[in-house]
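testing teh design pipeline on a random one, pls ignore if ur not involved
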């Protein structure tokens, strides 16, 4: 092989090597960027459950300047359903902003939670079927986003994990641009979960 052929071969080898490095760098950068700010979660801790709207409004999360806060407040409100459905609806009305809980939504919530008041409690850390869905203290909930949570402008779909289900459940929210607040739109997290151990004949 002549010197020119050798130089040509070396040059081609270098070009291939550098091209491979460049492609690898671009791919790694893309992989690392996927999900940044798109798979995060936020935790909220509460010392007690609000019994009514007045108590809910004392919480710092009531600013609702992020959809994560609104989801956490909605689950607090749902936990009050066994004690007072009216108080729950009043809190949810506030969290829905310009809209109110519709008769259909009220019936839906009633059907899902009657005799299953433990469902909203199951979304707090430490709540499992074995302990009757009793959350750890302080009451802590983690709210998740995914890469598709904010696909549509002024809309968000966030996720919460139940101690009695394998898959996370969603809550849909809508932003009011004039105030920057995120309001509750659709509660999609009240599906069936595993029953508490004390109610399970097969436990």
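output:
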């Amino acid at each position: 092989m002549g010197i020119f052929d050798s130089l040509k071969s070396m040059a081609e080898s270098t070009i291939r090597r550098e091209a491979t490095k460049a492609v690898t760098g671009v791919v790694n950068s893309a992989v690392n960027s996927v999900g940044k700010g798109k798979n995060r979660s936020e935790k909220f801790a509460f010392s007690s459950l609000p019994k009514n709207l007045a108590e809910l409004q004392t919480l710092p999360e009531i600013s609702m300047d992020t959809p994560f806060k609104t989801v956490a407040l909605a689950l607090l409100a749902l936990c009050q359903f066994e004690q007072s459905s009216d108080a729950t609806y009043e809190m949810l009305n506030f969290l829905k902003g310009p809209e109110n809980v519709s008769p259909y939504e009220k019936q839906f919530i009633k059907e899902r939670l009657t005799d299953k008041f433990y469902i909203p409690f199951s979304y707090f850390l430490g709540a499992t079927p074995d302990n009757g869905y009793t959350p750890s203290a302080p009451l802590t909930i983690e709210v998740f986003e995914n890469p598709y949570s904010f696909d549509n402008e002024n809309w968000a779909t966030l996720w919460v994990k139940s101690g009695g289900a394998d898959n996370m459940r969603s809550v849909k929210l809508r932003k009011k641009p004039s105030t920057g607040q995120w309001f509750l739109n659709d509660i999609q997290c009240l599906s069936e979960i595993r029953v508490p151990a004390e109610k399970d004949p097969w436990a």
